[in-house]
Amino acid sequence: MTDKNVVKQLAELLEPIKKDLGEINRKLGQHTKILDQHTKKLDQHTGALVNIEDTIKVYGDMYQVNNDNARKLEKRIDVLENSEGIVPPQEFRLVDL
C-alpha cells in the first residue's frame, strides 16, 4: 500500500467524523445562542431581585424599630395604668408574635 492510498483511506474514514463534528458544532452554536438569551434575561432579573431584597430588608428594619417603640410605649402606659388601677380592655394590648 502506497502513501497515497493510506492518505486516501484515512481521508475516507475521517469523512463521517468530520460530518458529525460539523453537526455537533452547529447544535452547539444553537445552544450557545439560547444560553446567551437566558443569561441576558437573568441579568435583567438580577437587578430587580436585588431591589426587592433591599426593599424587604428596609421594611424588616422598619418593622423592628416600630415594634420596639410600641413595646417601649406599652411599658410606659402599663406604669401609668397600674398606678391608677386602670385595667385596659384586651383589644388594646399588644399581641406577642
Walk me through the topology:
Layout: H1 3-84
Multimeric state of these chains? single chain
Question: Which stretches are poorly predicted, pLDDT < 50 over at least 5 residues?
Answer: none
- The DSSP helix count reads 1
Class inferred from helices and paired strands: mainly alpha
Number of domains: 1
The CA-CA distance between the termini, in Å, is: 90 Å
Radius of gyration, whole Å: 37 Å
The total count of strands amounts to 0
Q: Mean of residue pLDDT?
A: 91
Give the topology string: H per helix, E per strand. H
Q: Helical content, roughly? A: over 70%
Please summarize the sheet with the most strands.
none
Measured by DSSP, the beta-strand proportion falls in under 5%
Shape: rod-shaped
Give a description of the structure.
The model has no long low-confidence stretch (mean pLDDT 91). The chain is rod-shaped. The protein is an all-alpha fold. It has one domain.
Task: Please give a handful of descriptors for the protein shown.
mainly alpha, 1 helix, 0% strand, 97 residues, single chain
